[in-house]
Amino acid sequence: MSGTGSSIVDEDTARTVNSGRETVGAMLSTAQDHLQKVFIVFLVGFVASFYALRSVGWPFLKSVTKAQMPPSLAESVTIIAVTPFDVILLQAKIGAVAGIIIALPVLLYYSRDSLRKQSWYPGAPIARWKIALLVLLALGLFLGGMLYGYGVFFPLMFKFLANNAITAGFETRYSIVKWTEFIAFLSLSFGLAAELPLAMSGLGYTGIVPYETFRDKWRYAIMGIFVFGAVASPPDPFTQIMWATPLILLYGFSLYLTKIVVTLKRGSERLSFVGVVRDNWIRILGVPALAFLLVRMFFTRAGVETVNAELPAKYALPTVGEALGLPRTEAVLVVSGAVALVAFVVAFLYYLTQALDEAASAAQAAAGVGAPAAGAPSNIDLENLDAGAVRAAPPEVFADMSEEEAVGYARQAMDADDTEKAQAILDRYDELHPEDDEEGEADAAAGAAGAEAAADAGEDGETTEATFPREESESSGNVLESTAAGMADAFTEDETTEDDIGGWFYDLRFIFESLTSKMMYLVAVFMIVLAAVFMFLYRGGIGVIREDFLSRIPAEVRPETGSGEEILNIVTLHPVEALVFEVKISTLLAAVAVLPLLLYWAWPAMKERGLASGSRSVFGLWTGVIAVGLVAGSALGYTVVAPTIISWLVADAVRAEMIISYRVNNFFWLVFFTTAGIGLLADIPLTMWLFERGGIVSFDAMRDRWREVTIAIFAVAGLVTPDSLYTMFLIAIPISVAYLIGLGGLWVVTVGGRR
């Protein structure tokens, strides 16, 4: 089938894809005469990075990792290669990435003519000093973020993680691949996060994101910073605070910088950087000079010794030379210069703020507003302002303005042949009323749909409001839209039944809404259990469990032989492996603890939807059954099953005189599933029989929904187990078998469901 109507890609998308393909082809065609030079640059970057890692890179990363560790802890941290090709392949990968990054600017330079023809290159010439300043600023911010990571964050984080693993009795043998990828990812995230001032000011200056949006949505920004930190950094409060605190301060600075940039753009006729420096150059230069002298006097006149005399010995400050690793004279100059630079920036921003306030006052004066009382934003008359004054006017002038008023002022400016002022008025109004644009687009779409519906209905005009959306979807929707609409119909209340996925979605939403008033208690119980278990494991509990468990293994396969050599070791190949395992175990036990309470409060809604019946007093008995089954099964697994299985697994390796090293994840998941897992498996048929006897869930419901239960079991197993299909099946299949055993027992008790 051919024709434009049958394609799911519209003409604009196809044109964009073709344009991009042509641009890439033309760029390579133009640069083909210089590809040899580009390849040479790539090769130089690749080789230089490859050998730099060998001679400088690995020693530097090791020194950063162990910078804050005491000698005993540093000796226990080793970097290992798991396979023979780990090191050379890793160096090749990093070298290739470095070579591409270095060669890319050269390729773009030689293909600039093709980019200019495709309108991908600025047509108007841009001053080279502006480009150089922008590039230097971006590089400086990126390097500043990485400097914080390597100078502050990484040493403290690795000390914390290594100490946590050693306390638990693990061996910290970091895989060179996982260790390097972990550092590289965090380094990149710090460098990109440091670009926040440049990104925010650029977005605000171009008007893509108004300054008022950054100002009003600061709560969401802080929440996003913490969420991003939880993903990018290890899952413990200490490192997340170290991650989030500088970013929050950076966001505040970026917000202030964006305000300055936007204000300068709006009132550039009345203010300039050069003018601010010219009018206040003595004070702007005097403040950093004074700061430099004061800091230098503090370090050269025994300031550190005086402060340490008033502090306890364990909180004593190091000397500036020890802190920076430089000779004392050079270290004092570096610190004094850094403080002076910060003082210069603060002084400049202070006087720039004063100049901005004066520019705003001048704009009000130009509008005929003199007295402070009369200078309220509501009293500013836009008719007497020029375009520059409109851009410099306070945002409150336009925040309180209606759309009709803004259009009226713009029309007056057009009548006066001042198109620049008219555009400035509309731009300022749109910045503070983005919702009007969305409503206008929605109204236009609704109007177009209504016109089509009216035309299709005929001349009698007998159409209703409900006809318009349907006509719009039928006439203007493409394949993707109609498919998405059909999928969404399954979740609408009018189009669903109790047997399809929409009905299940409605049931879940109904149950969730019934739990809204109890959500605070559920979250509180979950967090209390999670925190208690995590603190127990984190403060050495996991080490106590390890020692006691290994003591139950037969003597021939215990960790230490008569010579003291360890046969069975538990290692961490990733810096955060032990910590992540503690979080997973804590989360799993917290979920088990909160489940009876959740079902107890959800029971009325489940009963109303026909998913449960009987008395919810059964949940109290069920809680006791779960506790007894879990404790009894765990005790049996801990004392008999788990030691027997592990002894059988390592017997051949011990006879062959091999040293066994288990990853902490694999070893402890094995221990957990052969101890607490047995108790949880025993709880499944007990729960099913109890729910059926108590009238909570019938045997017919359990039998008819076995497919949904099986899918849910495999889905949860895939999320909570290590990243392996083998472990997912190893957990999901026994649970599914336990569910089938429960169904079999109920089938016998209920005589096939007839009783």
Automatic annotation (TrEMBL):
<feature type="transmembrane region" description="Helical">
    <location>
        <begin position="241"/>
        <end position="261"/>
    </location>
</feature>
<feature type="compositionally biased region" description="Low complexity">
    <location>
        <begin position="443"/>
        <end position="456"/>
    </location>
</feature>
<keyword id="KW-0813">Transport</keyword>
<feature type="transmembrane region" description="Helical">
    <location>
        <begin position="728"/>
        <end position="749"/>
    </location>
</feature>
<feature type="region of interest" description="Disordered">
    <location>
        <begin position="434"/>
        <end position="480"/>
    </location>
</feature>
<feature type="transmembrane region" description="Helical">
    <location>
        <begin position="131"/>
        <end position="153"/>
    </location>
</feature>
<dbReference type="InterPro" id="IPR002033">
    <property type="entry name" value="TatC"/>
</dbReference>
<keyword id="KW-0811">Translocation</keyword>
<feature type="transmembrane region" description="Helical">
    <location>
        <begin position="666"/>
        <end position="686"/>
    </location>
</feature>
<feature type="transmembrane region" description="Helical">
    <location>
        <begin position="519"/>
        <end position="538"/>
    </location>
</feature>
<dbReference type="GO" id="GO:0008320">
    <property type="term" value="F:protein transmembrane transporter activity"/>
</dbReference>
<dbReference type="GO" id="GO:0043953">
    <property type="term" value="P:protein transport by the Tat complex"/>
</dbReference>
<keyword id="KW-1003">Cell membrane</keyword>
<feature type="transmembrane region" description="Helical">
    <location>
        <begin position="88"/>
        <end position="110"/>
    </location>
</feature>
<keyword id="KW-1133">Transmembrane helix</keyword>
<feature type="transmembrane region" description="Helical">
    <location>
        <begin position="331"/>
        <end position="352"/>
    </location>
</feature>
<feature type="transmembrane region" description="Helical">
    <location>
        <begin position="182"/>
        <end position="206"/>
    </location>
</feature>
<feature type="transmembrane region" description="Helical">
    <location>
        <begin position="618"/>
        <end position="646"/>
    </location>
</feature>
<dbReference type="GO" id="GO:0033281">
    <property type="term" value="C:TAT protein transport complex"/>
</dbReference>
<comment type="similarity">
    <text>Belongs to the TatC family.</text>
</comment>
<feature type="transmembrane region" description="Helical">
    <location>
        <begin position="38"/>
        <end position="61"/>
    </location>
</feature>
<keyword id="KW-0472">Membrane</keyword>
<comment type="subunit">
    <text>Forms a complex with TatA.</text>
</comment>
<feature type="transmembrane region" description="Helical">
    <location>
        <begin position="281"/>
        <end position="299"/>
    </location>
</feature>
<comment type="function">
    <text>Part of the twin-arginine translocation (Tat) system that transports large folded proteins containing a characteristic twin-arginine motif in their signal peptide across membranes.</text>
</comment>
<protein>
    <recommendedName>
        <fullName>Sec-independent protein translocase protein TatC</fullName>
    </recommendedName>
</protein>
<keyword id="KW-0812">Transmembrane</keyword>
<keyword id="KW-0653">Protein transport</keyword>
<feature type="transmembrane region" description="Helical">
    <location>
        <begin position="706"/>
        <end position="722"/>
    </location>
</feature>
<dbReference type="Pfam" id="PF00902">
    <property type="entry name" value="TatC"/>
</dbReference>
<feature type="transmembrane region" description="Helical">
    <location>
        <begin position="218"/>
        <end position="235"/>
    </location>
</feature>
<feature type="transmembrane region" description="Helical">
    <location>
        <begin position="585"/>
        <end position="606"/>
    </location>
</feature>
